[in-house]
Amino acid sequence: MDSGMTVPAERSVVLDAGDMGRAIRRIAHEIVERNKGAADLILLGIPTRGVFLAQRIASAITPIDGEAVEVGALDITLYRDDLRLRPARALEPTAIPAGGIDNKVVVLIDDVLFSGRTVRSALDALNDIGRPRAVQLAALVDRGHRELPIRADFVGKNLPTALAEQVRVRLVEFDEIDEVTIEGGAR
Amino acid sequence: MTLSTVIRGVRPYNEEPVDVVVKGGVIAEVVKAGSGAGRVVDASGLIALPGFVDLHTHLREPGREDAETIETGSQAAALGGFTAVFAMANTSPVADTAGVVEQVWHLGQQTGLVDVFPVGAVTVGLEGAHLAELGAMATSVAQVRMFSDDGKCVHDAAIMRRALEYVKAFDGVIAQHAQEPRLTVDAQMNEGLLSGQLGLAGWPSVAEESIVARDVLLAEHVDSRLHVCHVSTAGSVDIIRWAKSKGIKVTAEVTPHHLLLTEDLVASYDPVYKVNPPLRTGADIAALRAALADGTIDALATDHAPHPHEDKDCEWAAAAFGMLGLQTAFSIAVLTMIESGLLDWRALADRMSVRPARIGHAIGHGQGLVVGAPANICLVDPDAFWVAEPSSFASKSRNSPYAGMTLPGRVVHVYKAGKATVVDGGLAC
Amino acid sequence: MRHLLSAGDLDLDEACLILDTAAQLASVSDRSVKKLPTLRGRTVVNLFFEDSTRTRISFEIAAKRLSADVINFAARGSSVSKGESLKDTALTLEAMGADAVVIRHGSSGAPHRLATAGWIQGSVVNAGDGTHEHPTQALLDAFTLRHHLRDGTGDLAGLQVAIVGDILHSRVARSNVLLLRTLGAEVTVVAPPTLLPFGVADWPCVVSYNLDEVLPNVDAVMMLRVQTERMQAAYFPSENEYSRRYGLDVRRMGLLPPHAIVLHPGPMIRGMEISADVADSPRAVMAEQVANGVSIRMAVLYLLLGGMTDDDRKEL
Ligand SMILES: [Zn+2]
Predict the structure, then answer these.
(1) Cα torsion for C194, C199, C204, C208, to the nearest 10°?
(2) Chosen from B188, B190, B195, B197 to mutate, greatest number of chain C CBs within 10 A
(3) How far is the CA of B214 from the centre of ligand 1 (A)?
(4) Is residue B76 predicted with pLDDT exceeding 70?
(5) Taking the model in full, what pTM does it have?
(6) Class (C level, CATH) for C7-134+291-315
(7) C-alpha of C11 from chain center
(8) CB contact under 8 A, C107 and B316
(9) ipTM higher than 0.95?
(10) Is residue B422 part of a domain?
């Protein structure tokens, strides 16, 4: 929370647990559909919540395709362009499947797509790790306000927002509840 | 026909207010407050003490006039309430000949703010090998009576014995910087838990105590006078106390900083706290204060050791040893000895004037506030507080460990042989 | 974290943060592109008043892997020979815009002085000062211990570590005693009494004069170099006597529990404190220590410079 806001003036739930489950399953279906199966797929979640989403999407893909899809984590902290705006951040784990990413289709998974800077950092990080055949992007929520020419391939929910509003994704693995909320701002 | 000066309403040693009448450079009479006749100086609320005598200063001239000169050192001394100082011999050239001690003596007289008594070196070049011409220095104009290789220890027992014996011919005294050199190679601070943690080579108490013990035994054996410079450890106090109880002719001094500051300050690695002997522990401080109170330690002596900024604005090991002391000594004495109730004002005057003058034969000093004595008088305000600001000190150097501290007791006026050297806390003239 | 001057300044959380960060950064060394853009535009100065090629190179690699600009400044002149003073060197570096100064100096407290005297604004990393401390060495040792004897995460609670050799003059020993204690390990220092600091009984460790008694009970033994100059100063009678009593040879290595490892901060004097057979045995982890040194120093530089620094704050 920034800009001195105290208690959020408004807090509305835009996705509940059921909505979220459906959104994840839909993304899973779309990924399989687009890639004509799950072979050569690697889902890389961007910490923290992107990693849990990646695991859930992977679990949702398995029954569709019958094949386990590889999952990993890609911390982008060291590639951020806004490091100097905050004290040094602790690093999150990066876990790349043993076979590497060369010639694989990497699907980056993040909770909220906003300015696009996180994704740009992730693309830079990928570039230093290997050379995938293709990189795709999945986000649970796309809230708009892009600052870079970046577009998601798979979106759980498009959510028009005002800049002052906060979109919060909570996941049971980390937050003890599944929900997406919009908080604050003048609605 | 000289005019009389009446120091009106002053309290000698904080006792009943009187008028002290000064005439012709001496204390002419002490009369009922308000009754003295002459030019009046209002001294109500002030305490009169005999002018302080410092047995241990480094005035750096000749040789290191960038750090201090006899003139600036004399100014600092006067502002600190002193009317006499003993200038240590570790100058360049070393004060080991009649020529050098006379030069120092004359420069002191020219400045005229305090009597500068040169200390002669014990050995040529402070090298500990050959006795300097002690007799020539004693019979020079400077009439040297105190000899010291201060900065270095006269570590050779045979040389120390001969020096003690030799000075008996003119009632001299050997002032020893007690530091066993082999136990203090590259030593940087008090040896203890902290030195081990900070990785600084230790200066163990035993390196001081072993020399003090040896020297008091030598002094006893040859029946001569020994003075122990800057005693810094509880163990040294015990040895000196024992020696005095045996009737051995030993006297001793302690510095203001060893009465107040502990080794913990070294943890900052700020070389302003680097001094030799090093800052010790709280237990040592307690023993030193008690010893100064009971007279085991005779004198408070500053070991005023000016160093140019570049010799302190560096890493610890590269820095010079020493602290300024002249302008803060009185306040530190008030803080440590008067406020604690360990000394009353008369006893403080004894430790800062009477006894040091006697030890060093400071002619004309230390006779106290008695009629007929030279009018060496220091008037202090016991209730004033001031903030130590080294940049405003008269000394050429700034290496005071008390920078920024609020200190009790202020020197207001000082008279040397009846002539005002300090007026209202500033230099006269 | 503003500076890294003493291992004793780190609390458990800070120490673990550095180790965890190093663990993440270690993977960079296994990639084909061994470089991160993180410290682009930052300047790291390696200010070495003492020759130590290995430590200097380790910091240099660490800074370069994070894309910092690196300036190696081999300063002549120490407390002994009056060359350019520490202060003047510092002022020069400040004028060059150093964001961090990694300093190795023969005088204990020199990094502390550099950080607090007001000569420079940037961060100061102690790369070894006199006989005081060498905190990154302690961190890399802890990292190595954690990797071998724990699962590579968390603290070192309950671990038994012996540090053997010239404790008196060792900055590595001081930093290790402090850091290992913070991490929950139990340390025994082993040396002849002459090579133990005055007051060591009050250090947060156990003291022993007998290596054979200690070895069966430790998970790791850290051997320190003993300089033969110490012999001249009567700290011990002869090299032979020293290595008979305190050297780690094959017989003594046999006293260690099977899982225990042998560390040495280098450079080793084979035949003195450690025999060649021990140094070359699989239990000796010196090569890993060197590799881990790069990760640890990357972590330290990242945590000092990877976020907003005082300079950045001023520009806001
Ligand atoms: Zn001295």
Answers:
(1) 30
(2) B197
(3) 17
(4) yes
(5) 0.92
(6) alpha beta
(7) 17
(8) yes
(9) no
(10) no
Check if the beta carbon of residue C224 is closer than 8 Å to that of residue C164. Answer: yes
Catalytic residues of B: 303
Residue spans of the domains in chain C: they are: 7-134+291-315, 135-285
Comparing alpha-carbon positions, the chain C residue that sits nearest to A121 is C37
Identify all chain C residues contacting B196, using CB atoms and an 8 Å cutoff: 168, 197-200, 203
Separation CA B129–CA A21 (nearest Å):
94
CATH number of residue B276's parent domain: 3.20.20.140
Domain-located, residue B207: yes
Neighbours of ion ligand 1 (CB under 5 A): B 150, 177
pLDDT grade for C33, boundaries at 50, 70 and 90: confident
Would you call the peptide bond into A48 cis, given omega within 30 degrees of 0 as the criterion? Answer: yes
What pLDDT score was predicted for residue C233?
A: 82
CATH for the C135-285 domain, from 3.40.440.10, 2.30.30.60, 3.30.1330.10, 3.40.50.1370: 3.40.50.1370
What are the pLDDT digits (tens) for A62-115? 888 788 899 999 999 999 999 988 889 899 999 999 999 999 999 999 999 999
pLDDT (mean) for A160-171: 93
Name the residue of chain A whose CA is nearest to C42's CA.
Answer: A84
Q: Where do the domains of chain A lie, and which CATH numbers do they carry? A: 23-81+91-161 (3.40.50.2020)
Sheet containing B115-118: give its strands across.
B52-57, B82-87, B115-118
- CA of A28 relative to ligand 1 center, distance in Å: 84
The Cα B328–Cα B398 span in angstroms is 12
B–C interface: beta-carbon pairs under 8 A: 81
Tell me if domain C7-134+291-315 and domain C135-285 are identical in fold.
yes
Residue B371: count other Cβ atoms within 10 Å of its Cβ.
12
User: What does the pLDDT look like over B291-342, one tens digit per residue?
Assistant: 999 999 999 999 999 999 999 999 999 999 999 999 999 999 999 999 999 9
How much distance in Å is there from the Cα of B277 to the middle of ligand 1?
7
